[in-house]
Every structure is written in C-alpha cells, then in structure tokens.
Amino acid sequence: MKNVSLALNGILVVAVAVLYFLHFSSGSKTTPATESTIPTDIKIAYINSDTVLKYYDFFKSNVEKLEAKGKKLDQDLQNRAQSLQNDIAAYQRNYSNMTIGQ
Fold this sequence. Notes:
Elements lengths: L1 H24 L23 H7 L1 H41 L5
C-alpha cells in the first residue's frame, strides 16, 4: 500500500512539474500592451451653479411658474380629497339608516 501511494505521489509531482514548465515556457505568446487612447486635448470647465442660478432670468421666471402650478395642483388635490371624504361620510350615514330589505 505504501508503494502505491509513493508511486501516485511521484506521478503527481512529475505532472505538476510538466504543467509548471509548459505554463511559464511560452512567454513569447503574450499580447503586447496597447497604447492608451485618451486624447490629450481635453478641456475641463468649472461652473458655479449657484451663481448661474442667481443671475439666470429664464430660470427665475420658470421657477415662479412651476411654483404657481404646483400650488394650484396641490389645492386641486386637497379639494378632491375633501370631496372624497364627504362622499364617504354620506355613504356611511346612508348605510346606517338602511334596513335589511333595502
């Protein structure tokens, strides 16, 4: 039993050595590194957004319009919610007054 184990270990050591040799002996097959394709004339701009928003009249006028529209939609939503609450209360009052036959 010792001889079989020793022979198997010897075969595995030889196989690992062959694989190691084959892996590192083919050094010329590697691909060369490609050059970077990043352009060198990139221009970067820095913008102070708070200054742009402060002096941009178009932004100011549209913000006022959007705020007015938002207030109008909010009021419409509140009116619809109140109407729905009133309808629910009316149905509940009518339900309590109904008899089994109705």
